[in-house]
Amino acid sequence: MVHLSTMKRGAWLFGLALVVAFSAVDPSASRAAESLPARSRHVEVVLLSETNSLSPGVPVLMAVRLRMEKGWHTYWRNPGDAGSATRIEWKLPEGFQAGPIQWPVPEVISIPPLTSYGYEGETWLLVSVTPPASLPLGQTIALSAKASWVECAQSCIPGSADLVLVLPVVAAPGKIDPSLRVAFLQARGALPQAPPKTVQTNVWVERGKLHLELKSAEKKAAVLEAPRFLPAEEGLIVDSAPQTFRLKQFGIILEIPQPPKAKPLPRKLGGLLLAQSTEWKGTRKIAWALEAEQVPVPISLRSLPASRELWLVLGFAFLGGMILNLMPCVFPVLSLKVLHLVERGREEGGGSFSHGLAFLVGVVSSFLVLATVLLSLRARGAELGWGFQLQSAPFVALLIVLFFLVSLSLFGVFEFGASFGRMGGVADRVRGLWGSFGSGVLATVVASPCTAPFMGVALGFALAQPMWIALLVFGALGLGVAAPVFLLCAFPVLMQLLPRPGRWMEDFKQLLGFPMMAAVVWLLWVYGKLRGIDGVGSLLLALVGVGFGAWLFGRYANLSRILPVRLVAGLVGVLVAGAAIGYLLRDASSRRAEEPWTSYSAARLNELRSERVPVFLDFTASWCLTCKVNERVALNNPEVRKRFADRGVVWMVADWTNRDPAITQALTELGRSGVPTYVLYGPDPQSEPKLLPELLTPRILLDELDKLPSPGPGAPALSSSPQGRP
User: Fold this and answer.
1) Where are the beta strands (DSSP E) in 332-422?
2) Which among 23, 105, 381, 532 is least buried, having the fewest CB atoms inside 10 angstroms?
3) Spatial contact of 250 and 220, defined as CB atoms under 8 Å apart
4) Is 363 within 8 Å of 444 (Cβ atoms)?
5) CATH among 3.30.230, 2.60.120, 2.40.300, 2.60.40 for 199-294
6) Cβ–Cβ under 8 Å, residues 370 and 386
7) Element (H, E) at 152
8) What would the pLDDT profile of 630-679 be if each residue is shown by its tens digit?
């Protein structure tokens, strides 16, 4: 009995040794390639790999599997009326690349009055991961991912899990794990299919509804029933609203209500079409992954006279253009132009009509050029709208300089001849009809950043139409802007209503300088959003130079009776202003660097130190001149930045611009009472921090960083995301 038991134990040990030996010889014979499961309250999550090994440069299909308890669900990429999409944040070794989530077809989950899109029971989120081609053989690689989701039933609970899967690296492509083969095939089958190549899809917005058109290029009748469209982006449709469709000769048009503040329609709209397809074999469910091209609302030349909607939009555009004259950035220039045209008309004996017509042509032609540029850029894929110029920092900078110079001219600091201040722009230096045409161009320049009531409907309609309709709308907008000036010039009787020229014109001109300065302040705020506080500082410095040049020009070039003084003052003034504008444009065109820092908090600092991560703590403030000098000279030095990254040093910024009590306490603990203060913490949590000098040089920083030990292979890399440095 004992002998038999001993034999059985020996056979068992021998079999176990064989399994271990074969597993050592062939890593692909290991257990299923899946991580340890993680759980929230109602969801179990696992990270899986289709193959049980990795090969250099060979993509491997991975999956995050979520199993929900009965009655609970998670969400698709567009959750619908409620919920949040599941997210996967990969933490992969250097050289690995993770693709986007391949979303399976969701269910429409209706809990009145809300409708959501998600998954019940079990779902697999597939992701393709590609190793680098230079991956060394024989080692094991840890692939980590953090999954975050929201699990809902009658209530919703956020959940997350850190998942790790370790796979060996072999030369030949990894074998598909037999235990997961069928599951991965089923996961692939749950993905939406591409529609037939003969199906064309278009989308447009009309009367508060999104219209999705599917038509057959082969001119076959539609065989789809109960279609429902699920856009990939949120905020485009009312998810709980019924979706109606109407048949066309060779297709269908699906009409879906939009919310009052719907997102702008992208040039290509992605999403899913769920429907039933009726065929001779019966009815089957389909799920097509669509990418619909945005097209204008169908309007033809033949239907133009009968299109009440188009005529209404043209009326809105004209009315919006007239109201645009009252905007603070437009009113001063146009008011001065009216006064000058009236004065010129009286001097020239009724020649105001031709000047008013030239002004109108200048305005309308400029609006048409602006519309052509805008529509051309949108056709090339740029998502632009009215006022798109304000997304360009150099354009905003030039506009600020222009408004600033106009303001100085209105205040009497300088004049380009007697006519500049009266006409409110450089274009008015040119005599005759070209001067009035140039004034119309200038009026368009100052009007383009502004908007007015009734313009939104007209411009939104125009930007979704064919080119010729859009140009009609923009032309009507330009006519509205030019109409008051043109009417005043065309009918001399109206001129008699204006007061006679006198002292009041000079006072009124100076008064108009204040709304122009208000426009400068507004544009400074816009520029600050584009370039940050440092960019605003550079712009204000440039304006000092522009103002000084304008003062020189106005004080000496116009007033001095000595010709050499006039010439030298004019030349120096123009050179100073030109140099300031050149500096400004160079700064505005430079790319804003993405600084590698993180904001200070005592908890985050202690966390990094406990993880043995070296930290460079930078106490600074926006009003500290020494801090700014150190930043430009030493901290922004490319070699210093590279050494920070090589040594794995986290750059932490403590912004003391506003007296933060936590930062004050941290300075007190270090024995300091002001900024700049620079502290270098080594990787040893027990080591004392090293206080660096207030005046930094690249050499000082490089020497101190070289004293730090090199980080190990698992050390965190320096963050490269901007965190809002002061």
Assistant:
1) none
2) 381
3) yes
4) yes
5) 2.60.40
6) no
7) strand 140-152
8) 887 888 888 988 888 888 889 899 888 777 788 888 888 888 877 788 99
